[in-house]
Amino acid sequence: METGNRKIKKYIGAGLAALAIVSVFAAVALAAGGGEATKPMDWGWRIIDSSIIIAVLVWVWIKYGKPALLGRIAKIEASLEEAKKTREEALAKLSAVEAKLRNKDAELKSILDIAKANGEKEKEMLVREAEKMVADIASSTKDLIDAELVKAREAIRREAAFKAVELAEKMVRENVKKEDQARMLQEYLEKVGK
């Protein structure tokens, strides 16, 4: 912080600089107007008026403008510092995400390899199960065919027996006459009677 004497010297220096600037502007304005100053008092009033305006402007600047600009500078510096922190955090997060992505690529490859291995195992298991099912179906089919063959043979034997009986019966009817029938009946009755 500035001490009181320094402030006063600073304001005096600023005032003298402003007075010099006003004098220069007044001289330039006078030269532009034809260069005729009729009375020295006209110069004095012009310098006093300009000095008052400059003093008011300097006072307004010191009272309001400078603190506003200093506050704005402080806000900008704080914003820049915050932006710097945010940038550093974002860069740290970015590097973490990039590291995760590199790890994810390796992890994804590992998962794909595991999935392929599991797929091969599943395929082999399904092939074995299918082969077992085919063998079971073939065995069941053979058993069914054998059972059906036995049934068919039995049916053929029965059919053959029925046909043989019918044929024998037909032959007996054709070859056996009434006398043979009476004799066979008599023989049967004698056997039953004993």
How would you describe what is shown here?
- This protein is mainly α and 194 residues long.
- The protein has a domain at 4-121.
- 93% of the residues lie in helices and 0% in strands.
- The protein is built from three helices and no strands.
- It has helices spanning 4-32, 40-175, 178-193.
- It is rod-shaped.
- The model has no long low-confidence stretch (mean pLDDT 80).
Topology, pairings included?
Elements: H1 4-32, H2 40-175, H3 178-193
How would you concisely characterize the structure shown here?
The protein contains three helices and no strands. The chain is mainly alpha-helical and 194 residues long.
Essential attributes:
single chain; 194 residues; mainly alpha; 93% helix; rod-shaped
Q: What's the SSE pattern?
A: HHH
Largest sheet, in brief, is: none
Question: So how many helices?
Answer: 3
Unreliable spans are none
User: Strand portion, in percent?
Assistant: under 5%
